[in-house]
Amino acid sequence: MEVLITILTVLMVIDSIALIVVIMMQEGKEGGLGAIAGAAGESYVSRNQSRTPEGRKRFITRILGAGFMVLALAINILEKLAA
């Protein structure tokens, strides 16, 4: 049980570092062409937002954040069971 907790902890540290790096790479909300076409409604930029590099970074951030939460929950449950 201790080995599994150690492995999950190492994975959580790697996930945390990756999450920090991806968040720091993202631009602010006011940057980019989306701010210019913000009032235009359904523009080409807003429809294809997920295909841009920023859209991919947001997607990766969500995946890493979900992984962080799952790992934290799993480590907590395993430590409760081990005690």
Question: What does this protein look like?
Answer:
The protein is mostly helical and 83 residues long. The protein has one domain (2-27, 40-82). Helices cover 70% and strands 0% of the residues. It is built from 3 helices and no strands. The chain has helices at residues 2-25, 44-47, 53-82. Helix 1 runs antiparallel to helix 3. The longest helix has 30 residues, at 53-82. It is elongated and about 55 Å long. The termini are close together. The model has no long low-confidence stretch (mean pLDDT 85).
Radius of gyration: 18 Å
What does the overall shape look like? Answer: elongated
Total of DSSP H or I helical runs spanning 4+ residues: 3
Strand tally is 0
Helix content: 55-70%
Uncertain regions spanning at least 5 consecutive residues: none
Distance between the first and last residues' Cα? 10 Å
How confident overall, as mean pLDDT? 85
Count of spatially separate domains = 1
Major beta sheet, specifics? none
Order of helices and strands: HHH
Beta-strand content bin: under 5%
Helix/strand-derived class? mainly alpha
